[in-house]
Fold this protein.
Amino acid sequence: MTTAPATMRIGELAARTGVSAHVLRVWERRYGLLTPIRSTGGYRLYGPSDEWRVRETVRLRTTGLATAQAAAAALSASRQASDDPTSTRSVAHGARGGAAPALRERLLSSIGAFDDGAAHAVLDAALEQLGVEEALQEVILPVLHETGERWASGSFTVAQEHFASHVVRHRLASLALAWDAGTGPLAVLACPPGEQHELGLLAFGVVLGRAGWRVRYLGADTPVATLASAVETLGPELVVLSAVQTQPLVDTADHLDQLSESAAQALRSAHLVVAGAGATTPVAERLGATLLTGDPVDAALRVSPRGEQGIAP
């Protein structure tokens, strides 16, 4: 497991995982899930391994396991990874040059074999060794791209492509459990009508939430009127529309004129951003939006965590 130092107080661990400090203390006392160290000032400090075990327990509970079973499984997986030299981050060579390529190959192999357990084990290792942002950039998103390439070339079937999407969506959804823990500004994320590819937007939301934003996620194929209604109700500081094709964004621009005056004003008042492979300068101009380029992680990191600086050029 990672050797990064324990630096988090329990409040930060609670905010990062979406599990209350009270519940974390219960899990620590009852199941031995957490192994804090004491600071010189006497505070209990938690590290990345503790965060991983909490997140894994939360994920396993969503599969129907009781908390005791989920915690025991998370602890067992943590110990196994600690004993596995291939699961330890390479200090000499760094994560990018060492662990990431092997993790990508293991994940692709698991997808090819439809091995759900193995795929989740690789994702566990990637998140533990690399951290969320680097795991997304170096393992998860590249594997999704490669899966698409293999499907296009015929070396993967559509069933394997769907399986990969399901596994990744499930994991990203578990990382999104802490979206309400932020204290920063509010962001609404959606794909326009006709756009079904949402995993990039979901990854964007995970990183944005970890930066302190509160996120409301509307997902794929969101009708323009539904988006406008949500924006009118919530009054977010940021609205992100993501698409891998340009046409859904063009269609959205065409539909804006059909909105009620109040709904249109709500959208104009929020900072509207377009992102994804389908987002272009012309369509951003038609929507009166800001174009956000780059992969989902870099794009999210360029958004100020407190909403004070807007989006960097």
In short: Residues 218 and 269 are 19 Å apart (CA to CA). The mean pLDDT is 84. Residues 132-153 form the longest helix (22 residues). The longest strand covers residues 214-219.
